[in-house]
Amino acid sequence: MKVYGIYDIRTLKAAKTSGINEFAFDFRPKSMNFIQSYKCASIISELYKSDDVIYLIFEEEKSFVISSILKELKEKLSLSNEKFINQFKLILINQNEFDFQNDFELDISLFYKGAVSSSVLKKIKKLKTIIIPYQLVESEFENNTLHNFINNLYTLIGSVNSIRIELNVDWTDNIIPSLSEYIDFDDFSIDINSNIEVCYRNVDLNKFNLSIEHLKALNTL
């Protein structure tokens, strides 16, 4: 289970208390969960553990911007290059410049929206995970095209070695009960959003904790 869009230390502490050690910070300027690199480094350093897996979210971002943020985080956290590579990962959304992704030493997760070819995936040397938004799966189900979607998905990832499949869900999603019979998900992720907040950028921790325990049960489906 992964929590995406962490923007304050209290939410990260709640996630860690729930046993979650994989979480993401969102560097998309238009995102409601946007965080600046210095704030991200401050939050990480206060609760840092060597087994944390930290994801950094970017969308249609330039290579030099990502490189600058990675360099700043590594320096502020005083991590060796080896340690940084082992603990930090990239999540890329709507990224068109696929060739530049090989500029980075970090593992890459890619949001899948049904419009990427196997030839493109093969270009991304550090690609480890395909993230599928549940809304896409639900839409395919409602349109009676889920089987075709699944066949296309497995054909796609079958062309690339050792790709993990992650389902990105929302707090209010009613997951199709039989979904796990069709797709073998390796992990689940969820984004901080208004469905779990009292008000803007203020997570309801009681609701968060209860929801996390419910969602963690998805891993046993």
List keywords for this structure.
single chain, 221 residues, 8-stranded parallel barrel, 9 helices, 10 strands
Instruction: Give the DSSP E fraction (strand runs of 2 or more residues).
Output: 15-25%
**Averaging pLDDT over every residue, what do you get?**
91
Walk across the major sheet and give the strand order. Answer: 1-2-3-4-5-6-7-8
Largest sheet geometry: 8 strands, parallel, barrel
Secondary-structure-based class equals: alpha/beta
Structure annotation, total helices: 9
Termini distance? 13 Å
Overall 3D form:
globular
**What order do the helices and strands follow?**
EHEHEHHEEHEHHEHEEEH
Count the E strands.
10
Fraction of residues in helix: 25-40%
Description:
By secondary structure, the chain is α/β, with parallel strands linked by helices. Helix content is 38%, strand content 22%. It has 9 helices and 10 strands. It has an 8-stranded parallel β-barrel. Helix 1 packs parallel to helix 9. The radius of gyration is 17 Å and the shape is globular. 24% of the residues are buried. The model has no long low-confidence stretch (mean pLDDT 91).
